[in-house]
Write a structure and sequence with these properties.
- It is a single chain.
- This protein is an alpha+beta fold and 258 residues long.
- It folds into two domains: 4-95, Nucleoside Triphosphate Pyrophosphohydrolase (Alpha-Beta Complex); 129-257, Nucleoside Triphosphate Pyrophosphohydrolase, CATH 3.90.79.10.
- It has helices spanning 32-39, 68-72, 80-94, 168-180, 242-257, and strands spanning 12-17, 20-22, 45-49, 52-56, 65-66, 106-108, 115-117, 123-124, 129-138, 141-147, 158-161, 183-195, 200-211, 221-228.
- The strands form three sheets. Strands 9, 10, 11, 12, 13 and 14 form a six-stranded mixed β-sheet that branches. A five-stranded mixed β-sheet has the order 3-4-1-2-5, with helices on both faces.
- The structure holds zinc ion.
- The site of zinc ion has 8 residues, from loops.
- Zinc ion binds next to loops.
């Protein structure tokens, strides 16, 4: 972590408080000069990338702020990759203030990407949670489901966290079986995405339908069905989500066949 003296005039800062991004007159980025009054005596500045740094502020007066989610879903042309990375680093630091082994405080370690226990020296690295997201296909149809958590009328791919000891392929087969009662095969990796809520790595796959009838998992899946690629419901935007890109790419590949 960088002492503030090393910040140059061109440095750009992202300031967080309680997990929200503080705005600087409507902008997400602050200069070292404009951020200075807010940073206090010994701020921990987390290098994000290039000349961009993040800081997690505690206390202080109320400033205009936005959630990362609201920025992600806004039409504003913000640098989402930097915001996403900064948010994940700040979340990691906020949730590793104390050592899980001995309970003492942690401090920045030798490199920028490690926190070290002041007492026992245990090291804490940023944690990423891998997930699979899968588009199950049956020729000209795709399986889409709606979770109870989605906005109404909104469908997406199935997804789930990789459990300890599983390969992504095993997770995928288990999740599809649990959530909709289907068997799949010909599992192949397609593309991935970092998803900062709070720190997922979404691994996007395609899989072919092999058998079974759709049985939505009670409490998890409100509805799941086969949609013809020519008649889709509201789906996630391909601009921001790997689910949207998986669907869009498959639909495009099918249209070439027609
Ligand atoms: Zn410790």
């Amino acid at each position: 972590m960088i002492p503030p003296g090393r910040l140059t005039a061109s440095a750009r800062l992202l300031l967080f408080r309680q997990g929200r991004i503080l705005l600087n007159g409507g902008e997400v980025f602050w200069s070292a000069r404009t951020a200075d009054p807010l940073l206090g005596e010994n701020p921990r500045l987390l290098p994000v990338a290039g000349n961009c740094f993040a800081a997690d502020l505690s206390g202080g007066d109320e400033k205009e702020s936005r959630s990362l989610r609201s920025l992600l879903f806004s039409e504003n042309d913000v640098e989402l990759e930097l915001l996403s990375r900064a948010s994940q680093l700040v979340h990691w630091q906020r949730t590793h203030r104390f050592c899980g082994l001995c309970g003492e405080s942690t401090r920045p370690g030798e490199t920028d990407r490690v926190l070290e226990c002041v007492a026992c020296g245990h090291l804490f690295f940023p944690r990423i949670n891998p997930c699979v997201i899968v588009l199950v296909t049956r020729g000209g149809e795709i399986l889409l489901a709606r979770s109870a958590r989605y906005r109404s009328g909104f469908y997406s791919c199935l997804a789930g966290f990789i459990e300890i000891g599983e390969t992504p392929e095993q997770t995928l087969s288990r999740e599809v079986r649990e959530e909709v009662g289907l068997e799949v095969g010909n599992i192949r990796y397609a593309q991935s995405q970092s998803w900062p809520f709070p720190s997922q790595l979404m691994l996007g796959f395609l899989a072919d339908y092999r058998g079974g009838e759709i049985v939505p998992e009670p409490g998890e899946i409100e509805d799941a069905r086969w949609f013809p690629v020519s008649d889709l419901p509201n789906i996630p935007s391909s601009k921001i989500s790997v689910a949207g890109r998986l669907i869009e790419d498959y639909v495009r590949s099918r249209q070439k066949h027609l």
